[in-house]
Specification:
The chain has helices spanning 3-15, 28-34, 55-68, 79-83, 87-102, 119-132, 160-169, 185-193, 204-213; strands at residues 20-23, 41-46, 72-76, 107-111, 136-138, 146-147, 153-154, 175-179, 198-200. The protein is of the alpha/beta class. α6 links the parallel β4 and β5. The relative contact order is 0.10.
């Protein structure tokens, strides 16, 4: 992304008063300037998008991002270690990064990349994140494309079954962020009904403009939505 496109995204974040603007670490100074007179907080990603950096590198990256002004850190797990069942490594990494972030008065979200994982791995990660006491678990980076039998690549992102699984197996204090696949207001309402408290979406403008049309704003309203028989939020 260019600085111009990042600036456009930050302007959207400010205009719609979203919770955070999610950016790469090099853009933190730019985000601080753009969001200075707003309540929008800065979220920086580390080990992104594949989670392959060493734990030491991730801790350094997280520490520097918070020092630069990030209020939240989104880390990507070491996916290979998860798939290999090296749970001690995975838990130690999450623990070290969480301690580095929380000690500097920021919070941590742990990205699972659920497209690559089975239910057993997702459940184990939920248990680890609950023990460590992270603030959020998150489904996806947006880059978790999986090669299909026909040679094409596809990506699901947040799915209804995975979100239900994460909510069931995380402690009550751990919040859930759905990222990828939430493309409409109905998608947003649907995942909220599952217990999701934060959504990452590139369709922010479309979703919130539709909310205005349907007179859904900051006041609490009751909206009927069904998740029966649904497997995906939206298809890519």
């Amino acid at each position: 992304m260019t600085d111009v496109s990042i600036s456009e995204g930050l302007a959207i974040s400010a205009r719609y008063n979203v919770a955070t603007a999610c950016i790469k670490p090099f853009s933190i100074p730019q985000a601080r300037r753009a969001l200075e007179n707003t309540t929008v907080q800065i979220c920086a990603v580390i080990g992104f998008p594949h989670g392959n950096s060493s734990t030491k590198t991730k801790v350094f990256e997280a520490t520097e991002a918070v020092r630069e002004g990030a209020h939240e850190i989104d880390m990507v797990i070491n996916i290979g270690k998860v798939l290999g069942g090296e749970w001690a490594y995975v838990e130690d990494e999450v623990q070290q990064i969480n301690e580095a972030v929380v000690s500097r008065k920021a919070l941590l979200k742990v990205i699972f990349e659920t497209d690559f994982l089975g239910d057993a791995e997702i459940i184990k990660l939920c248990e680890i994140c609950t023990r460590v006491g992270v603030a959020f678990v998150k489904t996806s980076t947006g880059y978790g494309f999986v090669k299909q039998e026909n040679g094409m690549y596809s990506y699901n992102g947040a799915t209804i079954p995975h979100l239900k699984l994460m909510r069931k197996h995380c402690g009550a204090q751990v919040q859930i962020k759905a990222a990828g696949g939430v493309r409409t207001l109905d998608d947003l309402i649907r995942v909220r009904a599952l217990g999701v408290t934060r959504v990452g979406a590139t369709a922010t403008v479309a979703i919130l403009e539709e909310a205005k049309k349907r007179e859904i704003g900051e006041e609490v309203v009751e909206v009927q939505v069904s998740t029966a028989g649904a497997s995906q939020v939206s298809a890519y």
